[in-house]
Amino acid sequence: MRSLYLDRKGAVLGWHNGAIELRLPAEPIRRLPLRDLDRVVIAAPCTLSTGVLNALWDRGVALLLMGGRWGDPGARFSGAPHNDARIRLRQIAVIADAARRQDWARQLLLLRLRQMRRVAVGIARRRQRGRDMLRPALDAIGRAEQRLVTEPPPTLDALRGMEGAVLAAWFACYARLFPASLGFSSRRRRPPPDPVNATLSLGYTLATAEAARIATVAGFDPAIGLIHGLAHGRDALALDLVEPARPHVDRLVHDLFHSRKLTSRHVTSSAEGAVLLGKAGRATFYEAWEAEAAPVIRPLLRAVCREAVRRLRAGPPSPAELAAQGGEDVP
């Protein structure tokens, strides 16, 4: 078990003899060795001891607390950062170099487009008239790919505009894959107004948390991004890295509703008008996430980070890195 999802009120997590002790009302104590865990997701009110928090941090196990407003993520951490600070200094050097930043951002967007094409073609093959429904999106993806491959690297603003145009075409076609009874017509998230948007938001949240964890483990600062700019409290790099993974969330959400494993009966509405997955719906989603989406998304994110680290280490040291060298530890 690499992931622990807790969605039971009243759960208590303690730390004893190198393992998490999970106490649930009216159930025997369960012991969960940390060597078997990469991440913990908590979606219901529970209690965690300081021993658990310290153990998760020390062993690089990610923690994500759900249940913020409209189902947004709350507190989270990705475990202790990588010990090689030079990676972070070289990351900053890429951000400071406009040409390098544009080239890296271009390659990241190109990877997203290729993942979108892969997902769209897969859905089209499995749906009656699927290719007709997704043709405008496939055409938009193809045009953007052609521009990124044959033209000089565009500015960041141009890249963002290109991405926005492709996403508009994608979601216009994606909405046609769902029955009108679900009320899904476009991507909206604050608050999610329908079951499809609610499920997309949950999937994107999990994928972004995974991107932040993998980036941190690889040695990056997840708050310093290429396409997404700096903003207080925002993991900009995680939002960049998750872009190629988003199409696989879209595929999972489509498959869950198309197979009727999720329906409108699996959601609840808040007083503010937000539509959120209920407990049974979340359980279905988490199971499908681990079985179908995570095995694709996690290796993809790790591969992107590995290649980025390789390129950074192969390049010259940054001025900040050179300035930081030298000096002895004070006894």
Task: Provide the residue-averaged pLDDT.
Answer: 88
Examine the secondary-structure arrangement and name the CATH architecture of the largest domain. Up-down Bundle
Order of H and E elements: EEEEEEHEEHHHHHHHEEHH
CATH topology of the largest domain: Four Helix Bundle (Hemerythrin (Met), subunit A)
Radius of gyration, taken over Cα atoms and rounded to an integer in Å: 21 Å
Number of domains: 2
**3D shape:** flat
What does it look like?
By secondary structure, the chain is an alpha/beta fold. It folds into two domains: 3-65, Ribosomal Protein L15, Chain: K, domain 2; 85-319, CRISPR-associated endonuclease Cas1, C-terminal domain (Four Helix Bundle (Hemerythrin (Met), subunit A), Up-down Bundle). It has helices at 50-58, 85-96, 98-126, 130-150, 156-174, 195-218, 236-241, 246-258, 279-314, 319-324; strands at residues 3-6, 11-16, 19-23, 30-33, 39-42, 46-48, 62-65, 76-77, 267-269, 275-277. A hairpin with a 2-residue loop joins strand 2 (11-16) and strand 3 (19-23). The longest helix is centred in the C-terminal third of the chain and has 36 residues, at 279-314. The radius of gyration is 21 Å and the shape is flat.
Tag the structure with descriptive keywords.
331 residues, alpha/beta, Ribosomal Protein L15, Chain: K, domain 2, Four Helix Bundle (Hemerythrin (Met), subunit A), 2 domains, 4-stranded mixed beta sheet, 53% helix, flat
What's a quick, concise take on this entry?
Helix content is 53%, strand content 11%. It is α/β, with parallel strands linked by helices and 331 residues long. The chain is flat.
